Amino acid sequence: MNAEPNRAEINAMGSALSAEELEDFTRKLVTALKSVYDPEIPVDIYELGLIYKVDVADNKDVAVDMTLTAPGCPVAGEMPGMVKDALQGVEGIGEVTVNMTFDPPWTPERMSEEAKLELNMY
Fold first, then answer.
1. Which of 51, 58, 105, 110 yields a CA-CA distance of 20 to 30 A from 4?
2. Domain, as residue range, for 81
3. pLDDT tens digits for 101-115?
4. Is residue 121 a part of any domain in this protein?
C-alpha cells in the first residue's frame, strides 16, 4: 500500500501505457471512485479507504479490490455494481471487474484526513 493509509494501490499491469497516460487515466479512475458514496456515511468510498487496490492492464481493463465498513453492510450486494457503473463511465476504459474482500478488515484508520474531518472524528 502507499504511504497514506486510505489511498488505493494503483498498479499498471504492463508497459503499454506511458507514465503520463497512466497518470491521466488514474486521475479519471479516482474521480469516478470518488463519485460513489456509502449510503450510510456522507463520505465517498475512496476517502473512506474502501478501495484497496486498482490494477490497470495494457488495454485499460481495470480490476478493483474493495471492502465495506462492515461485512454485514446492507449495501454489500449493491456496492460492487455501483463501483463498476461509475468506472465504466471513464473514457477509454476496458473491462471492469470489482472484487469484494474483507482481508484485511476495514478500520477507521484507513480514512483520509478529509473524511475524518467530514465525520468529526478528531
1. 58
2. 9-110
3. 999 999 999 999 999
4. no
